[in-house]
Design a protein that fits this description.
- This protein is of the alpha/beta class and 355 residues long.
- The protein has one domain: TIM Barrel (Alpha-Beta Barrel), CATH 3.20.20.
- The protein has a 5-stranded mixed beta sheet with strand order 6-7-8-1-9, with helices on both faces. The protein has a 4-stranded parallel beta sheet with strand order 2-3-4-5, covered by helices on one side.
- One of its GO terms (molecular function) is phosphoric diester hydrolase activity.
């Protein structure tokens, strides 16, 4: 009996996703609104590590990163259509193979038992040495899983992916991330093409088409329809400073690049924007043709207070991408906070641009 009920619920969910997808087919990808996850690969900090760090956390920072995610393919199965991936460059290998906190805390769970962190390549971590628990040690493995899932669901609606290249100064343990270079960004593009496939990526060149600049194409609404973008992914670089400029260098209007950038509206490369605060300004940018990402919650605060006001503003803003850490309620603290559209869906017509 339980199996029959479960099967019925599963089929009902599939039918809902199918009907939702068909409903959006003739809209352009800037005329829909999707919900997705923030730091999609992140696992919870191990309890023993959390306990140790909390005793030294005078600024009460730890509760802000007390969240976790189910495996990415399961998120996509639920209907989420946005993901966020952080990537650290590790051209020699081994730079992040031993989180320094493990010198201070004895854990019950081994880190990287297969030694994947010792090999050269892009690594997926939230915060080095502290918040290191991850669904994927390497970007390669993540991309392979995305391709596998996409091939098995070839009619899926486009998935937006935020790609954050992480570097910066040394942390309190003395670990300084490898700094990005033009070559490392070229290699990152090649990694996306190699393991996911260029045919699965919506690129800036695709959108620019015959227009002089990418921005000109965007304000002329040259985005594809959902049905034309099925089975594909659109990547956006989460950086608006030196790394963004380095990625754009020698690539006018992002010619030849695999990833869009968070660039100032009106500049040649501008197409997708990040506005984490769901302000009324978003609606005007959406009407102009830009795709905007905003957030339903941040730092666990909305979830702890069961406060949906930010999510309501995000929906009303028309931002095409809304991220959350709580498409399912938290298992790390008591809260019923859960983000979705009506009927537990994660895609709908855009309230500002949807026809």
């Amino acid at each position: 009996m339980k199996k029959a009920v479960f099967l019925g619920l599963y089929l009902s969910s599939l039918n809902l996703l199918w009907s939702q997808s068909q409903h959006l087919n003739d809209l352009k990808i800037n005329e829909i609104q999707v919900i997705g996850s923030h730091n999609s690969y992140k696992k919870a900090i191990l309890p023993e590590v959390y306990s140790y760090l909390s005793k030294k956390d005078s600024l009460h920072f730890l509760p802000r990163i007390q969240y976790e995610h189910i495996p990415i393919p399961q998120q996509l199965d639920l209907g989420l259509r946005n993901l966020e991936i952080d990537v650290y460059a590790d051209s020699k290998g081994g730079k992040y193979a031993h989180p320094k906190i493990l010198d201070l805390v004895k854990t019950t769970q081994l880190f990287d038992p297969e030694g994947k962190m010792k090999n050269p390549g892009y690594k997926m971590i939230h915060i080095t040495d502290i918040d290191y628990q991850t669904q994927y040690y390497t970007l390669e493995d993540c991309l392979k899983d995305l391709k596998k899932w996409s091939d098995a669901h070839s009619d899926h609606d486009p998935v937006f992916i935020t790609l954050e290249p992480k570097d910066g100064k040394a942390n309190q343990f003395g670990t300084e991330p490898e700094h990005y270079t033009s070559k490392l960004f070229d290699d990152l593009d090649n990694e996306l093409k190699k393991y996911l496939g260029k045919n699965k990526i919506i690129t800036p060149d695709d959108i620019r088409g015959s227009y002089k600049t990418l921005n000109e194409a965007v304000v002329n609404k040259n985005w594809p329809k959902v049905k034309e973008a099925k089975g594909k992914f659109l990547f956006v670089l989460d950086n608006n400073s030196e790394n963004r400029d380095l990625y754009m260098k020698d690539h006018p209007s992002l010619k030849g690049r695999m990833v869009f950038t968070n660039s100032t509206p009106g500049t040649p490369e501008s197409a997708v924007l990040f506005m984490n605060d769901p302000s009324p300004k978003i609606a005007d940018l959406v009407k102009q043709g830009y795709i905007v990402r905003t957030r339903a919650d941040a730092d666990t605060m909305e979830a702890r207070n069961e406060d949906y006001s930010r999510f309501e503003k995000a929906k009303e803003s028309g931002a095409q991408v809304i991220t959350t850490d709580y498409y399912q309620p938290s298992t790390l603290f008591k809260s019923n906070y859960k983000i979705s559209f009506d009927n537990n869906t994660y895609e709908r017509k855009n309230p500002v641009t949807g026809k």
